[in-house]
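yo, Cilia- and flagella-associated protein 57 is done. seq:
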Amino acid sequence: MASIVAQCHYIFGLRTGVINNICYFDEQTVIFPCGNNCVRYNIDQRWQRFIPGTEKSQGMQALAISANRRYLAVSERGEKGTITVYDLQHEQSRKRKVLSGGEVPVLEFVSMAFSPDSKYLIGQAGAPDWTLFYWMWEKQKVMASVKTTGSTNPINQVSFNPQDNTQICVSGNGVFKLFRYAEGALKQSNFLKLESQNFMSHTWMSEERVIAGTETGRLLVFESGDLRWEMSVTTKPATQEADRQLERRKPEEAKSEGAAPARMPRVTAITSYSKGFACSAGPGTVCLFEKTEEKDNYRKTREIRIPADPCSNEPSHAEQQEMVTLCISPSEETLVTSTDRGQLYSITLSSAEMSKGEQAHFEFLSHSFHSNIITGLSICIRKPLIATCSLDHSVRIWNFETNVLELHKEFQEEAFSVALHPSGLFILVGFSDKLRLMNLLIDDVRTFKEFTVRGCRECAFSHGGHMFAAVNGNLIHIYSSTTFDNLLNLKGHNGKVRAIVWSTDDSRLVSCGMDGAVYEWNTLNSKRESESVLKSCSYTGVTISPDAKTIFAVGTDCTLKEIQDCQILREVAADDVAYTTIAMSRSGRVLFAGTSIGTVRAIKYPLSTQKDWIEYQAHSGAVTKMVITFDDQYLLTVSEDGCLLIWKIIDKEGRSLKRDKDITYAEEILITKSDLEEKNQIMMELKTRVEELKMENEYQLRLKDMNYNEKIKDLSEKFVQEIESLKTKNQVLKTEKEKQELSHQEVMREVVEKHSREQQDFESTSNQKLMLEYEKYQELQLKSQLMQEGYERQLQAMEDSKGRTLEELTLFYEAKLQEKMLMLGQCQDESRQQVREFEESKKQMEEDGDREIQDIRIKYERKLRVEHEINLRLKGETGVMRKKFSSLQKDIDDRNVEIEKLRVELQKLRGVIKSLEKDILGLKKEIQERDETIQDKEKRIYDLKKKNQELEKFKFVLDYKIKELKKQIEPRENDIKEMKEQIQEMEGELDQVHKRNTQLELNITELRLKLKATDKEMHKEMQRVRDVEALVLRFRTDLHNCVGFIQEPKKLKDSVRELYAHYVQQSDVVDIVGVDADIQREYSRQREHLERNVASLKRKLAKDTEVHRTDNVKIMKENVSLIKEINDLRQELRLVRTQVHDYKSQMGINKKKLSSSDLTALPSVELKGGGLVARLNFEEEAERIIQLQRVEIQRLKMQIQGQVQVHSLRPPSSSTKLPVLTT
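structure:
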């Protein structure tokens, strides 16, 4: 199998001729047929998923989706009709079941429907049997079937009752039947004679109500199978307008579209929703009906139309499309419709309901599609664009990266071929009359050069774009793209040329034709480089390998031919399917071929004689063109079904093919100078309009502010007066309240005293009554005890008497029972005797009855013969009378029909007269209203002129006041600038002080380190001095001892030698003398150096303190001046605030920003005060900065004082003299 495969990526188009060809899967996803696939399209994210059709299918006939939106049923035509059910919840929408008619031969199913619980499926078979099947689809079991109509009355739609699995509605031409499934069979439950009505569609509104639409624009409402009422889907004026539009259509157009004469709008689609229903109402129109409150009637609330197409040559053509299917989203937000020209439209129902009084229009669901056979396909190198042309007179430019329609335009003539320039800026289109080279502008396709090539079926630009080839019958013309000269004419084909292709280096051109010839031409000298002729084959497609050595051709002989050096190297059979077009990838690893049945095959290269290909279900018609993009990423195919299919070329692991080099697409576009100037002019006009609107809005706002301020003044005065009056009332009420409180307190005291007296009296009386009642209670208790004893005695006596009477009764009834038993025995004997007598009498009566019956039979047989003869005579008379009656009945029916026709015509005429009278009255009223409005407008204009003059005066005053205010603001701004400059200078000085301080700190640390070093040296020297002193002290003692021998010279000499030997060495003497001199010199040098450093530091410190002192004095003077100015400003602020407070208390206005009118009313002092407030905010900020600088200066002063104290505590270097060494 091929290592490179193709995968469906995106598709543009809609398959027409499919019943119910659009349905909602969820709120964002719709399902529709396209080619030989069903497409799941996400409206918001614009992605597509594909459900491929079955192999050897001859096309889809109908779709149906279950009520729970999980299953999709697809009806397909083939050798026998089938219905395939797919599970949409599965990621790949896997196939669940395939249903057929079983033993009944069915060619196709024209309509289907799922039951409300999605367990059952009905399918209406087509001609000639028109059998309705009822499946339990999960078990593939046919539960019942019934023939719904005759061969002359086709069925248009079948549906389930939304509340009942067993009730089915079937409608068609002269057919409206309800069936019910019971006892394993479908039985018709209604019997109506409606042969004259052609029911195009129907929908269930409730469990018993069905609304059906007819071919004549009538809506019929059925309840429980009986016709309740009917109405027209459009009003008479709308119908007349539709008739006028049909009359205006050109005869040629009517011929091309097969248009019928003017007729009533057909109700081709109808669907219900919670508020009512939506139905088609003739070409390009959908009507919304909503339920009324009375008698469950419906009234038309909205008309939605398909808008005119501005890109079309005849914009009204789009409005004449017939609605095929209507579908409403699950949340009832969006209405989607499909048309007979393969277009999908949508509208948001909420927006349609909101636009009351305006005409609601549909919008394209995704893009505008081709509605006829696509004849041309081309791509370019510099842009990701696809160009297609079709027999629907349109040329469309698509983008295969963003999957959008970039441009489309319709022309007068049919387009047969198309070629995009490699730059993507020009397009070559072959029309029926001429070949046109056109510019692709930003929003238009505009012709700039025409060539006299009629009916050009093939054209192609060279890869370099400097030449293009165009086919004219059996000739091939090559033109220059720059000079438009005819460079070459390639002659040689005997039949029409069907395909041409350029080599990669543009030095060769390969062509094939219906004469069975494949020629390779040299594009420099128009010579034939190679040829291959096979008369038995009519070639339809050709391609060339990337190295330009091998040619591949396909034709009507159902084979793929590999041609090299004028010889056919290989022929690969195609299994009795004709190839129509072929394309080879730039890598040369795979061939793609399109077939006449709409499939696409990926064929491995090098070719083998075996069937080494993968076949994909693509289109529902023959593939007409096929192209591979220059980066080998996408395969593009178009077909006779009007669909453009984009395939992603991948390897078996699902990865995209590696590109030889990354392609960066160009973004430049063409636009004419006039269009650019026009757009710039429009922009300038819009800008000026925006400015005017701004000015107007500002003016209106100022007017409103003035009005509102006046109202506020009036209201504030009114409320102040009311407040004063309420205060006075409140004071009066308070005084009254105090008076009433005093009176109430007095009354309360009297009531309390009275109540206490009454309470005491009541207590005394109640105590007396309670004692009396207690005595009565004691007496009654004694009485009850006596009565209880008496009743007990009576009860005992009654029980004794009852026992005696019971014994007497038992004896009496036993005696009576014996008597009754004796009587029963006697009665039984009598009954046996009576039974014997009855049997004897019965026998005698039976014998008598038999004799009487025989006599009666003979008598009535004679009467029957006589009646039979009379009956035969009456039958003859009845036949004659029946014939007379039938002829009279026909006459009566004819007369009734004529009367009814006359009555209808009379009603129509009366209605026309009434409508015309209403129109006349309406026009009179309108004329009168317009006269009144004109008078009102004139008055309004006069008032506005007066107001405008007043406002101009007011504007002059405001301008003068604004100038004065600006003059007052300028000196304050200059003061602010000067203050800012002073603050910046002070900040600069502060930075210098910081730098000096840091330098001084560094010097101090350095001196401290040096001082530590000198201290260590000093300690060492002092230790050495102490050691020398100890040595001298020992030497002195020894010398003192030696002096004791002064009288003895010999001992003295010995002791002196011992001293010399003990205290003096020869080397030490020399070293000590040298070392002592060096130490003395180094010590003196270090001391002088330190003294000089300390003196210089003292001078620097004195100088710095003087500088800081002068700076501080300067800052203090500036601070004093600033504080004075701040105090002055505070006094001015207090004055302004008191004035503002007084003004607000007078006006009663809450603290809000004063408007422009209030500012004009304030005196100049107040305006100055407002400026001072702003100035004060700035001054407060400056004061805060100055305060921070003061804190910093204080810190630096303290630091300097600390350093001075450290230096003062340290002893001066001149006083630290070391002791003199004496040896």
